[in-house]
Structure formats: structure tokens, C-alpha cells
Design a protein that fits this description.
By secondary structure, this protein is mainly alpha-helical. 68% of the residues lie in helices and 3% in strands. It has seven helices and two strands. The longest helix is centred in the first third of the chain and has 29 residues. The N and C termini lie far apart (51 Å). InterPro entries: ICMT_MeTrfase. Pfam families: ICMT (PF04140).
Amino acid sequence: MIFWIFITLVIAQRLIEMRIAKRNEKWILTQGGYEVGHGHYKYIVLMHILFFVSLMVEVVYFSKELSIFYPVLFFLFALTQLGRLWALQSLGMFWNTKIMILPTKQVQAKGPYKYLKHPNYLVVALELILIPVLFQAYITAIIFTLLNLMVMAVRIPIEERALAVHVEYQNVGLVRNRFIPNRMKTLKKD
């Protein structure tokens, strides 16, 4: 019962996020923005759908139960949700599940984006491990962690090239490491 309540809440959250992303996409398009890398987006959506299907099948078919480490795992999951909300709130109307570029606006570098280039991708990577492990669905955790690594190996370079249309991203963003910014260069600019 706990599994179904938990998974229903997580799926509901994803559906709300998709709605927010669609609203933001429309706004960005009306401001003169455009989408980049739409060819791989369907694979990201498919991967996330299959993640939930795989999780449900593994938990139900193999009669998996809540991990004995659930207090720690749930706490870590709750932290990822705070990170997700922080990332979403920090980008506001610029947040999206697609790569949406608005060349006339400055790249948003506040909230977690001051510290990590792709905090939302880190949150997703952690969720793909934590959610299945919470219910001892280790096969799902391994498969979808590997699939996510493959998808991000395509998506992140596309996103970074697309963001290079912004002068300030060229000056700061391209010299940062993949996930962790070079704080010394950022501090020198301040």
C-alpha cells in the first residue's frame, strides 16, 4: 500500500511538472525563444515512463517491500525534492523539461545554478537510484541509472552548445566543469 501511495504521488508530481513545462514553453516561444535538440527528447520521456513501469513490475512481480533503510532513503529522497523545487523556482518561467533557448534574456545563474551547472539532472540521477532502492528494486535502479547516463551524455552537450548563444555563458559557463563550476573564475568575476 505504501508503494502505491508513494508512486502515485511521484507520478502526480511529474504530471504537474509537465504542465508547468508546457506553460513555460509557450511563454518562451511568445518571447522569441526556440527549442533545441528535440530529436532526443522523446527518448527522455520514454525512459521516464519505462522507469515507472519497470519499478511497478519489479516491486509487484517480485513482491518487493520497503527497504529496512527506508528512513535514510526517504530522507535523501526528500532532499532531492527540495533540490528539485529549488531548481524549478530559481529558473521560474525559464525552467523546462525541453531545451528552450531565449537568446534575448540572460542565462539564469541563481539558486543551485550558482553552484552546479545542471542541478536538476543531478536530482533526476539521484531519484533514479533512490526511488527503486527504497523499495529494493535493484534491477530498475541499475538499468535506469545506466540509461540516464547514456541520455545525459547526449543531452548535456546539446544544451551547453545551445546556451553558448548567450555571451555571459560563453564567458563563464563554457569554462566550468560539467557539473561543478570553477568557483575561482566565478569569484574573480564578482
